[in-house]
Specification:
5% strand, mainly alpha, single chain, 2 domains, five-stranded antiparallel beta sheet
Length: 402
């Protein structure tokens, strides 16, 4: 009889705990999005110098001040989602407006935005009503899958020699300069362990036995990454994302002995299935260049396309002054560092796909002196050798970029 009495009590405690976790998850997701949009506010405006890369040229332009009003509406909705007792309709409105606005510029498809949006969709569709009206467990399991897959694919994307030789040394440079030579060599040589640790975190979060250890490892990893990012001053928009990820792993997985692996990985509804496909399956296609790298947790992996715009000295002088700041003139030929331009104006890295590089090159080609302008695209590197295939296109042949 005691067991029969304890079982409902345990279920009630588990349900109440799920409701509390759902509230923390909603608040953290909305706050992360609020920070991300605020830090990259120029990215969400159409009235700017850096070119847009819409999904279709048939989309009408969004002139000022309508672009600013759209951004302010998104920020206002996020503030309301943070405090609302019943945020379901607010979440739906935000998802519609944010999804539509992202169609006008593919550079807005940043990894943090992509993750936050689908976590918010899971919360809104599966657990957005008041306590007692709908169990939040399906939303939590869908979000658990997003977080676990993000770690797993982030590690898999880094299994390449380019991460070891280029991406990690560049990211860790501020820390390495401040360490004694011997310790710096140890930190530098640890780069092959980083993808393994991320893969272990992703797999460990799904299990019940190793879940707590994976949480501690993930939180330690984000603390280290934040230290590196703050030291370098780079990519400020992902600083709150790292903090949010630490909160996500804690509230979703810490001391969770009830959620089974199959609850996370086996979809039980349409949203969970969509998330399993987008975050679990389709990133595999990025390894054969058939799915976008930023939709596959490839940030800071070294496993992305690269591009620069080669430009002659005379053409440089005809560029607007804000663009000339990002022209590399130390060696010949000169080139526009378009990723630095994106960081400088939009506060985010450029979306690293050839179709987006082409749109940027088209803008530079529109200025006088286009005969001296060429787009150089380097493909994703071969994992073992790091070798990249490169193609050069002049302004008259940009439509041949794949």
């Amino acid at each position: 009889m005691g067991g029969r009495i304890d079982a409902p009590a345990r279920i009630l405690r588990y349900s109440q705990n799920s409701i509390n976790i759902s509230a923390w998850l909603r608040i953290t997701t909305a706050a992360g999005l609020l920070c991300g949009l605020s830090l990259s506010w120029r990215l969400w405006l159409s009235s700017r110098l850096f070119p847009l890369a819409p999904v279709s040229d048939s989309l009408p332009a969004i002139p000022f001040p309508f672009d600013l009003a759209w951004l302010l509406a998104l920020l206002g909705l996020l503030l309301a989602i943070l405090v609302a007792a019943r945020p379901g309709r607010l979440i739906a409105a935000f998802l519609v407006l944010a999804g539509l606005l992202s169609l006008w510029d593919q550079t807005r498809w940043q990894p943090w935005f992509y993750q936050y949006v689908f976590m918010l969709a899971a919360i809104g569709c599966l657990g957005g009503k008041r306590a007692g009206e709908r169990r939040p467990q399906p939303a939590l399991d869908a979000c658990r899958l997003i977080v676990a897959c993000t770690y797993l694919w982030s590690g898999l994307q880094k299994l390449n020699v380019t991460f070891v030789r280029e991406a990690w040394p560049d990211m860790a440079a501020p820390l390495l300069r401040s360490l004694p030579a011997g310790l710096g060599r140890v930190v530098s040589s640890a780069s092959p362990l980083i993808p393994a640790l991320e893969i272990l975190v992703g797999l460990g979060l799904v299990t019940r036995r190793y879940r707590n250890g994976a949480v501690l490892l993930a939180i330690g990893t984000h603390a280290g990454v934040l230290l590196l990012l703050v030291a370098s001053g780079e990519n400020r928009v992902v600083w709150p994302w790292n903090a949010a990820m630490a909160v996500f792993v804690f509230v979703l997985f810490w001391q969770d002995r009830e959620t089974r692996p199959r609850d996370v990985v086996v979809p039980r509804n349409a949203i969970h299935l969509l998330i399993a496909v987008l975050f679990g399956v389709l990133p595999a296609l990025s390894l054969v260049d058939s799915w976008d790298s930023y939709l596959s947790a490839a940030l800071y992996s070294g496993n992305t396309h690269q591009a620069v715009i080669l430009i002659g000295p005379e053409a440089v002088n005809r560029l607007p002054a804000p663009i000339r700041r990002y022209v590399w003139r130390q060696t010949s030929p000169f080139f526009v560092d378009i990723n630095r331009w994106a960081y400088g104006e939009l506060d985010v890295p450029l979306y690293p796909e050839p179709r987006v590089y082409r749109r940027v090159a088209e803008r530079v080609c529109s200025y006088p002196g286009a005969a001296d302008v060429r787009l150089l695209i380097r493909d994703r590197p071969y994992p073992v050798t790091g070798r990249r295939h490169a193609e050069i296109y002049d302004c008259g042949h940009l439509d041949q970029v794949p």
